[in-house]
Amino acid sequence: MQRAIETGIAQGLNVTRDMAALGIRRIVDETMAAATRMHLAEKGRDPRRYTLIAFGGAGPVHAYDLARLLKMKRMLVPLGAGVASALGFLVAPPATDLVRSHVGRLERLDWAYVNGLLAQMAEEGRALLLEAGAAPEDIIALAAADMRHVGQGFEIPVKLPAMQLTTNDLPAIRESFFVSYRERFGRALTDLPIEALSWRVACIAPGRDIQLAEVANTATESSSDAMKARRGERGVLFEGAGWLPCQVYDRYALAPGARFEGPALVEERESTCVIGPGAKVSVDAFRNLIIELP
């Protein structure tokens, strides 16, 4: 990889290999930041009001720079961040999502045909959950549709009031569409006709109820407790700061109550957490890293 960066990028740009690698990382971080800004803007949220939770093998590697780009002041990195998605998969409610296409304006739809589609999908979804071990009485089915104003080139998901629909449900369906439309675009065009493109059924069973164990705070002096987890020192290249010596900490040796400051690296089996200069780190009762940015 170093040779590829050297010959494929650094030489052509007349920069050092290290600066080329830093540029690659910056492009990745900026791409993630742009996607995050777009997602939050669609929901009308300000990232500065939130804590960034880093998970996945590469999440803790990029989280510090991503938080800086988004002007977020707090990060949380769970223990085992690299397998957090797998843990979520194990405890998430079992669910199936099915979809069928059937295009038509609301006032012209054949509701008997639509109800047949919904019933068929509900039956298929229930069968899959029963096969996975769900109890029949615990399964619920929820209907939705992808709708738009006639002539538009995009659609939005809309919750439906029931699994079986008639023309009497049209006012409720239209209002549900307007609610979803306002959430995304800030206004509703109530005089324009609406059409449905796809029909969806989600079948859901209860998830597993788990309780994560808290760990007693055994640290007598938080800074000295963190020192026990040190495993050496390594140079890291930070944008705007250059090469800095970083303390390397063993994630599994950091006890609740431990505190230290960046620049630092926290290593565990599935990932490495990069902590930039000036950040303050503490370990909570669940062994999460709580990182306050400068």
Explain this structure to me?
By secondary structure, this protein is of the alpha+beta class. The protein has three domains: about 1-45; about 45-90 and about 210-294, no CATH class; about 95-205, no CATH class. The chain has seven helices and 13 strands. The chain has helices at about 1-15, 15-45, 60-70, 85-90, 110-130, 170-185, 220-225; strands at about 50-55, 75, 95-105, 140-150, 155-160, 195-205, 230-240, 240-250, 260, 265, 270-275, 280-285, 290. It has a five-stranded mixed sheet with strand order 1-2-13-12-9. The relative contact order is 0.14.
Which structural class do the helices and strands define? alpha+beta
Strand content: 25-35%
Share of helix, binned: 25-40%
Biggest sheet record: 5 strands, mixed
Query: What coarse outline follows from CA principal-axis ratios?
Result: elongated
* Gap between N and C termini: 33 Å
Q: Count of DSSP E strands? A: 13
Strand order of the largest sheet: 1-2-13-12-9
| Tally of discrete structural domains | 3
Radius of gyration computed on alpha carbons? 25 Å
Tally of helical segments: 7
- Helix and strand pattern: HHEHEHEHEEHEHEEEEEEE
Low-confidence region ranges = none
Mean pLDDT: 91
